[in-house]
Design brief:
The chain has 5 helices and 10 strands, in the order βαααβββββββββαα. With about 240 residues, it is α+β, with helices and mostly antiparallel strands. The radius of gyration is 25 Å and the shape is extended.
Length: about 240
């Protein structure tokens, strides 16, 4: 069983290097899409991912594309595999092998390319510094994250660095485990009705076919006085200051 855990990366080091790696991933992705579209228009086929990987390896030796070296080879391979899988789904739909509609991959704005993935144990190093604090090393940079969930480092499948629209970065670790966390099926069902007056009305056979009413939590109404005070304090703080 594969489980993924998400951890917030703290900016103990400037995050510009991670932004740079995400941008490079987007540039490589768009470069591969351009090659695929050109090849498809000529031969009505998609490029083999291994041919594309060899092409990118040669590009990294040129001065113009030397910045590709900052991104690990595993991350580059994962980009080509994503595109390859997308084209396979497109051709399967086109040939009638599947009813799931799928189009060809399209270009993405580099600033909207949010992640890159490293496979196995290549391209990064993990190190524990305290009981619940760890460090991930990517390239020559180290970043701290709070290890709120334990995982077996020897069974890690992929490590993904993801940036949110807010500029925050997260570490997503997918690892194999023998523990099955899924709950057993009971065979019982529940009907849920949302209302304006009540939060939820639950209808189950366990409750002798009766509705169970859950009242509105009214978090905002109960917090209005506190919010008013906090907003008043915030308005007095200088914009872009540490205090704000």
């Amino acid at each position: 069983m594969i489980i993924s855990s998400k951890f917030r990366i703290h900016n103990n080091n400037p995050l510009y290097f991670l932004h740079q790696l995400c941008d490079i991933s987007g540039i490589i992705y768009n470069h591969c899409i351009a090659l695929h579209k050109r090849y498809y228009s000529l031969y009505n086929k998609h490029l083999n991912k291994f041919v594309l990987q060899k092409h990118l390896t040669k590009l990294k030796k040129l001065d113009k594309f030397s910045h590709f070296k900052l991104l690990g080879s595993q991350a580059i391979q994962q980009i080509t595999e994503r595109i390859d899988n997308a084209y396979k789904k497109f051709f399967d739909y086109k040939k009638g092998k599947t009813s799931i509609k799928s189009g060809t991959p399209t270009f993405k704005k580099v600033k909207y390319y949010y992640s890159f993935t490293l496979k196995g144990k290549v391209g990064y190093k993990l190190k524990s510094i305290k009981e619940n604090k760890s460090i991930i090393r990517i390239g020559k940079k180290e970043y701290r994250f709070k290890k709120h969930r334990n995982f077996n480092e020897n069974k890690i499948k992929t490590v993904t660095i993801k940036r949110e629209k807010t500029g925050k970065f997260f570490l997503i670790i997918s690892y194999e485990t023998d523990v099955n966390n899924s709950l057993p099926h009971t065979g019982n069902a529940v009907g849920i009705n949302f209302e304006f007056t009540n939060f939820l009305n639950l209808y189950t056979e366990i409750d002798n076919n009766q509705f169970k009413i859950i009242q509105q939590p009214t978090w905002f109404k109960n917090s209005q006085k506190k919010l008013k005070k906090l907003h008043h304090n915030l308005s007095r703080k200088k914009a872009k200051s540490k205090n704000r």
